[in-house]
Structure formats: structure tokens, C-alpha cells
Amino acid sequence: MISTFRDILGFALVFSAFPQPLLAEGSPWDYARALARTGVIRERQESSDYRFEAPVSRAEAAKIATNLMGLNPETCRGVIFSDVGPELGDLCGYVEAAAESGIFSKSPPRFRPSDPVTRAEMAKIFLMANAIGPSVASAWYRDASKARLWDLAGYVNTGTELGIFPPGRYFLPNAPVSRGEAFGFAVMAKYRNPTPRDQTRKLVWSDEFDGNALNPEKWNVETGSGGWGNGELQYYSPGSNLSVRDGKLRIMARKEAGSGPQYTSGRINTLGKASWTYGKIEARIKLPRGQGLWPAFWMLGENMDSVGHPQCGEIDIVETVGGTSSEDGTDNGKILYGSLHYGNPKSPATGTKSESAAFGNPIGEDWGNEYHVYGIEWDESSVKHYVDRWRYGSVKLTGKAGTEAFHRPFFLLFNVAVWGEWPGSPDETTTWPQEMLVDWVRVYQ
Predict the structure, then answer these.
(1) Which listed residue (60, 96, 181, 319) is catalytic?
(2) From the candidates 314, 365, 377, 404, which is the catalytic residue?
(3) Quick check: is 319 catalytic?
(4) Is 314 a catalytic residue?
(5) Secondary structure of residue 404 in the 3-state scheme
(6) pLDDT averaged per 10 residues, the chain (length 445)
(7) CATH numbers and ranges of domains, the chain
């Protein structure tokens, strides 16, 4: 049975109706596409190919969890559990990797790989895969404590506190989990994760914006207009367009009255104050939303003044372009972009080489509805883009002409542009003012 549907996820599934809705929002099709885009499962063209109502076994859940953690087991030792060995195919390695990582206990002699995973077990498996622990708060459900293993109720509570499970009287902790629900929980566990400080790297620089003013030892305030190379309309002004209040950096874009600039906004950078070559760089941001707005968290090469752009290199950690595209109806507020721009080796005088990745919100929301952690992991071989715990883009640097710039120091920038060649102009749907809120920015190495 286990090999029947190996072409999709590498495991078998048997049809079963689920007793009641489990997740608070989203659709199985959106969840599956989000997991496929990040390599957790294999992509399929038709939703029916995913068999969303079929149940998921414990071994299958181990594979999804292991993929969520980015582990790639290559071997099956067959020594941890008496019923997990080569006969399970590649699932053996995934079960053993999940056990080695602490998701499953190694003490019972039998793993029961073909048993359906239960709701409470799924809560623990996928939350642990995202480094999220159990809650000690009072139970949300009358029956949460009836889970087969004593420690599962805390993970059920955590899932509810994160908005993954809808609150109610009963959770049915021992009920089996369908494939669509497993996909949904895997997505939501990433999406709702508060993303704590990275404990595996050294924090080398940060701004938590805890004061009541921008720190001049860390940031430069840019002013002026002139299009900024993109046909932008805003005038970058200090004043009330930039502030620090209630633990947040606030960059305000305004539509102005009178004879002065039609739009004003804010832009800051760390040039001459802080720069880095390689590292994990991230910020927790609530993005503005509206046609014609172009917020960005990005980096430029420190040698920009001497070599110019794009030869200095540019890393766009996150950009969005506001409202709905008039050409195809795409809601751009639900799509974010991560990019690298650098000098085109085939046309060094004027050419620009760009490599970008776009990522749609996995549950169909506007990215500006709430805070998210946007970041890159940058080393000598690549730049990887992620949002929260989703890695959605990777640009290879080794052996690629023109990418030499990305082995030199870069500095940080935040800004909100108005109009420009990419987002187009504001229209009657754009509301003013609009604000980018930054909770914190951190650099690890």
C-alpha cells in the first residue's frame, strides 16, 4: 500500500472522510501549491491529483515534517524502530531523521508507520518541525487532554493560540488527519510562526526601535526627489514622514496639498555606519498597501559611489507593488518579490542583470494585513530569500559572471516609494496616508 501514490509524496493514502473542519482558514489547493513551491511536496497540475481527503500515516507525516526542516536523509539504518526498515523505501530515512531530531520518541520499540496520524499528533509534529513549543495555558477544548500521549494537549493549545485551529468546544484529538488538512497545518505552522531570534548564529547588529527617535549612530536620513532612477514621484523628507514610536519605525507616505511636492515619504540607510558581507539579515515588517506604492527593504553595495549602479550590486530583500494590476487583474498586494540586480557582463557599460523570485501569500491574504519576517541568508555560494519560515527564492553566486559584487560589503535601506516604472501611479483606490511599520531589524553572522 505504501508505494501506491509514491509519485506524489512517496507514500500511500486511503480515502477517509474527516469528522469536522480542522483549520481556521484557507483551501487545500492553496496549501498544496505553497508546499510545492518550496519543495516540501511534488507539484501537480490538477487539485484532484493530491487526493486531499485521504488520511495521512505517521510515516507520511514524518516525511512532510522532515522536509519542512530542510533535512535530506539519504540512508535507512533500520536500527531505531523494529517496524521501520528498508521495506518502507525512502520513508524509512525520513522517519529516522524525524526521530533523531526529537519529533518522535525513540524509546518505543515500534513506530507503527502505517497508522493514521491523529490531530493532536499532527499539532506536535509540525509545530516542532518549526521550532514552536507547547503552550502551558488552559486548554481551549474540553477534550484536548484525551489525546493518546500526555504532552500533546499543549501543542493543540499552541495551534489555537496561533490562529491555526478555530476555537470551539471539541477538538477530537484522536481523529485521523486528511491529506488536505496535513498540507494546511504544515503551511499555517510556518505562516503563523512568530520567528524567534536565530540561536544558531551570532547577532552582530540590530535595531529594535525601542526609543522615541531614529538612532543617528545607526541610520542616515535621505532627502530629495528627482525620480531616484525609477521615475518615482515622492519627495523624501525627514520630519513627520519618519518616526520611532511604540517600539516601531514608521515610514509614512503622504499625498500632499498645495504647490509643493505631490507626494512625500521617507528613506533611510546605514551607509558609512554599518555594512556586511554575508549573513542572515531579516526584519519584521508590516507593509503598506495601495495602488502606486512601492515599499522596500533592501541592500546596496558599499562601493556604489565609486563604481555606480548596477555594478555595486543590489539585494532586494522584499518589495511589493501595491494594488491590482490593470493588465491581468493580479492582486499585487498578495505577491512579494525578492531580487538581485548586478552589472550585466555582456553589456558592462549600461546593462543590468536581474534575478527575481515572486511568492504569493499561501493563505490568500494581503501581505500588508499583518507583520511578517522578511529576510535573506547570504553566503559565498548563494542568496536565499524567505518570508517567515518560507524559503521562496535562491540565486546562485558561484561560477556566475557579474556576481562578484556580492562578495563585498553591503548596507541596508528602508523606503516607501510612490509611483515609478514598476507599480504605476496611484489612483482613486489608493488611501492616504500609508505607513510601513518595522518592529525590528537584525543581522546575524
Answers:
(1) 319
(2) 314
(3) yes
(4) yes
(5) helix
(6) 32 31 64 81 85 91 87 84 92 91 84 91 83 67 63 75 74 86 82 60 94 95 77 82 95 83 92 97 94 93 94 96 59 85 79 88 81 94 87 88 95 91 81 95 96
(7) 28-191 (no CATH), 203-444 (2.60.120.200)
